[in-house]
Amino acid sequence: MGFRLVTLNLNGIRSAADKGFVPWADGTGADCMGVQELKAQAADVAGRFERVAGMDGHFHFAEKKGYSGVGLYTRKAPSDVIVGFDGDEFDAEGRYVETRFDTPKRKFSVISCYFPSGSSGEDRQAAKYRFLDRICPRLMALKAEREFILVGDINIAHQPIDLKNWRSNQKNSGFLPQERAWMTRLLTEGGLVDVFRRLNDQPEQYTWWSNRGQAWAKNVGWRLDYQLATPAIAAKARREAIYLERRFSDHAPLTIDYDFEL
Q1: Residue 92 has pLDDT above 90, yes or no
Q2: Per the structure, how many domains does the chain have?
Q3: Were 248 and a residue from 3, 21, 53, 74 both cysteine, which residue would form a disulfide, CB within 3.0 to 4.6 Å?
Q4: Are 97 and 58 in contact (CB under 8 A)?
Q5: How far is Cα of residue 231 from the mean position of the Cα atoms in its chain?
Q6: Would you name the residues annotated as active-site residues?
Q7: What are phi and psi of 7, to 5 degrees?
Q8: pLDDT score of 1
Q9: Which residues, at least 6 apart from 245, have a Cβ–Cβ distance to it below 8 Å?
């Protein structure tokens, strides 16, 4: 059986639905699916996207219409749902939802998170750094008390292997030295595991392609979507797949199968 976990930045849940996201999700066999960049409000989801592929949705919507927002679809009912993490700037942007599946023997969470992009200018890059500064202590506190997997669009390509044109992107948001150093600290001192890279060390494994030029056709991509797990959970990862047959968004879905059950 196991536990199948999918993550996908939808770039608008209604847009993705128009491109076949819902029937595709039906066929994934997912036990849990994290989605990011809903670009929708509660009223837009009501009656249409509360349930997908037989899973119930749990959401964190942005205050601003048509912007950000994250969700987690779960087959098993969680013991608790936590919406938001900083009580401030980033909760207003709808970037964090956590479902907990706690039993007397285990504390375990799945988190869907959408890290800010800094590509639109200095203000947003500064916001991205503030987000990184705030999310890290949250994850470390969580790690001290429970196992978890965080899935989502992290908007950072960690190493040169994680994007096509790394040399020319060293001064661009998503591959800046400070962002990459933050990621390195999270995966070393922080003790979290980049699960995909634990299973697959090959180049040209991308999850996002710019809509400009011929990026998709030429596979000029970036790996921006991750599953980050505590070590004991990461050790149970068995298979990974980036779905490229159809496109629902400018991102591709990332699926990882784990050898445990909720």
Answers
A1: yes
A2: 1
A3: 21
A4: yes
A5: 18
A6: 153
A7: -135, 145
A8: 83
A9: none
Q: In one letter, which amino acid is 33?
A: M
Please provide the average confidence, as pLDDT, over all residues in the chain.
97
Structure-token match 């096509």, residue found: 164
| Residue numbers of the domain that contains 51 | 3-258
Cα R_g (the chain), whole angstroms? 17
Q: What is the CATH number of the domain that holds 85?
A: 3.60.10.10
For residues 215-244, average pLDDT: 98
The CA distance from 51 to 72, in Å, is 10
**Cross-strand bridge partners of residue 155:** none
- Model confidence pLDDT, tens digit, residues 168-184: 999 999 999 999 999 99
Exposure string over 108-145, b if 16+ CB within 10 A, otherwise e:
bbbbbbbbbbbeeeeeebebbbebbeebbeebeebbee
Q: What is the pLDDT of residues 119-148, one digit of tens each?
A: 999 999 999 999 999 999 999 999 999 999
* pLDDT band at 2; cut points 50, 70, 90: very high
> Mean pLDDT over residues 212-232, rounded?
97
